[in-house]
Amino acid sequence: MENERGNVVLDRSFSFAIRVVKLHRHLVERHKMFALADQLLRSGTSIGANVTEAQDAQSKKDFVSKLSIALKEAKESRYWIRLLIATDYLDAKQPHVISLQNDIAEIIKLLTTIIKSSKQA
User: Fold this and answer.
1) Distance between CA atoms of residues 119 and 121, nearest Å
2) What are the angstrom distances between the C-alpha of 64 and each of 21, 31, 104?
3) Per the confidence metrics, is the pTM higher than 0.70?
4) 51-82 pLDDT, tens digit each
């Protein structure tokens, strides 16, 4: 595997994807929650995949496009987490849930900053 260390958004999106996969397993095994868990799994793992694709973009426009898709997926993931909290599948007061929300908020901020600065360059 390529050494991708040092790329904060790539590292954070990969770590977030791992957490989402584990959360998906928990939701399916413990709550038999498939629909929302599957939605979060798709969007939560797609962030890092799109960031990875952006690393080999063919142009600045392609780079921004792939990161924009990653940003949309991150915002969708935030939505599914909020919905899982609102439907009592996740407890908003639990440290791991707070941490998950903080992680996705940070990823959204990072992607937004990178996209804006790339458009200005």
Assistant:
1) 6
2) 26, 38, 19
3) yes
4) 999 999 999 999 999 999 999 999 999 999 99
